[in-house]
Amino acid sequence: MKNPNSNSADVNKIKAVIYGQDYQIKGRASVDQLRMVAMLVDHKMKEIGEANPRLDLNRVAVLAAVNVADEYLKLRQEYEDLLRILEQAQQLGGGEQE
Fold it and tell me: Where in the cell is it found (predicted)?
């Protein structure tokens, strides 16, 4: 019996080559988003692999994940900082109308 909470129509699939390996990637994101994610991972792994040619696949993958996580955390912090600045600007300008 199918799970009533899952909708297979919501799941997209793509085939991607990441660091020379074939993968089928499934997710609820759009096909374009899944492709962009695969391209980002492939690019990051190639960047690390070219800079460190002696690393095996697992180490390249872990270092790529660490790099992407670091970039994500930095962007999230910048986003939160911008939201705070926007909120402060709205509070300061909220009472003024022309």
Answer: Cytoplasm
